[in-house]
Specification:
Number of domains: 2
Shape: globular
CATH architecture of the largest domain: 3-Layer(aba) Sandwich
Number of helices: 15
CATH topology of the largest domain: Rossmann fold
Strand order of the largest sheet: 3-2-1-6-7-8-9
CATH superfamily of the largest domain: Glycogen Phosphorylase B
Order of helices and strands: HEHEEEEHEHEHEHEHEHEHEHEHEHEHHH
Oligomer: single chain
Strand content: 15-25%
Distance between the termini: 30 Å
Number of strands: 15
CATH class of the largest domain: Alpha Beta
Structural class: alpha/beta
Length: 394
């Protein structure tokens, strides 16, 4: 972006960001959106965030946050569901005099925000972070998937632009009926923080790990992350005995069950920032069986740390893992399918080294945070200056 365009945006761009979780849980969406707000504010662009909040936030957020009423999500009480956009919040938004709405979640709050944008005559853009329809199958609600696809096609069809983390995800959404202007906005990775130099043999020793190959999963312990695939694969590795160890970094409502199924696995707990960077770099192989993400921040961070990745063959991983070069993609339809690829890589140090080096290079070249964030400024500029879609007219 040239300096003249950036100066124009500082004078004309005032964003309201709507999301379901901004800082009460530290997950991939919250981290991504906080990075976005920090980047925008560093470029002199004013942002207001509208989201549910709690009395015990997970971290200090970037930017000004306006809280909206919310209730615990059914079956997942650690998450909150916004129940609308009350009048007092609409008045605060109008006083801010926004020029653009950015919607991150197609929930009730997101739907109300699109209605509000249309009433104010403002363009609304959206970013795509989670494959929610894949959640239903893990909670016995698979029959809702077609209905959700129709709803999201309608929802995103009311947006001026939709930002997806990869072309693969964009193609999936087009096949599911989304007709809006889809643009790629990859998730940036701090390749300086997540770096192989953070490897610590002393930290491994504290965990009781010596020369063994340390196979690591990083993420929340929730059903939709494919806990069946995780536990079956790690149990099989643990049963083999010497040669490798398994480690889980994270926590969540399924932790008790996972611990019971994996008595030989190291549970490092929830880690972030430098502690998480050390955990990645001190591992030897990364494992991520989930299909519900749209990008997979943890996979990118692990690869930046020099780890080959064994992941489910799903849209979130296809943009990151080049099979046979930076890792392996595995059919996740059966939990046992992950076992042999993990064993093969765990037993081949030369292949792990080559793939780890290639993984690091791939992430550095394609997903560096600064270049990824700058791209969205061009998209915002187009949203403000381009022609409006008929369904966006007030």
């Amino acid at each position: 972006m040239d300096a003249k365009k950036e100066e124009w945006l500082r004078a004309n761009l005032r964003i309201v960001l709507f999301t379901g979780n901004y800082n009460y849980i530290r997950d991939g969406v919250a981290v991504t959106l906080n990075k976005l707000v920090a980047f925008l504010e560093s470029h002199g662009i004013e942002v207001v965030v509208v989201a549910p909040t709690t009395r015990t936030p997970a971290f200090e957020p970037h930017g000004r946050v306006i809280s909206v009423p919310s209730i615990p999500a059914p079956g997942r009480g650690e998450y909150r569901g916004a129940i609308g956009l009350p009048r007092r919040v609409r008045r605060e938004i109008e006083a801010f005099a926004p020029t653009l709405f950015h919607v991150a979640v197609p929930d009730i709050l997101g739907f109300r925000s699109l209605q509000f944008a249309r009433r104010l005559g403002l363009p609304a853009v959206a970013s795509y972070h989670t494959r929610y329809q894949t959640y239903f199958r893990y909670y016995g609600l698979g029959f809702l998937e077609p209905l959700w696809r129709r709803y999201t096609a309608y929802f995103y069809g009311r947006c001026h632009q939709l930002y997806v983390p990869s072309e693969t995800i964009g193609d999936v959404l087009r096949q599911e009926g989304v007709t809006t202007d889809i643009r790629v906005w990859s998730r940036g990775v701090d390749a300086d923080r997540y770096h192989p130099r953070n490897r610590s043999d002393a930290w491994r020793a504290q965990l009781g790990v010596g020369d063994e190959v340390l196979v690591t999963y990083v993420g929340r312990l929730v059903r939709e992350k494919n806990m069946a695939g995780l536990t079956r694969a790690f149990a099989a590795l643990n049963a083999q005995g010497s040669g490798w160890r398994t480690m889980i970094v994270g926590n969540g409502p399924e932790e008790k069950k996972v611990r019971a199924a994996l008595p030989g696995t190291i549970f490092a707990g929830f880690l972030y920032d430098d502690d998480l960077a050390r955990a990645y770099a001190s591992s030897d192989l990364f494992f991520f069986p989930s299909i519900t993400e749209t990008f997979g921040n943890v996979t990118a961070e692990a690869m930046a740390s020099g780890l080959p990745a064994v992941c489910a063959d799903a849209p979130n991983s296809r943009s990151l893992v080049i099979p046979g070069e930076t890792g392996m993609l595995v059919d996740s339809s059966k939990p046992d399918n992950f076992i042999e690829p993990l064993k093969m890589l765990a037993g081949d140090p030369d292949l792990r080294r080559r793939m780890g080096d290639a993984a690091r290079s791939h992430v550095v070249e394609n997903f560096a945070t600064a270049s990824v964030m700058r791209r969205i400024l061009d998209y915002y500029h187009d949203a403000l200056t381009g022609p409006r879609r008929p369904q966006e007219q007030p």
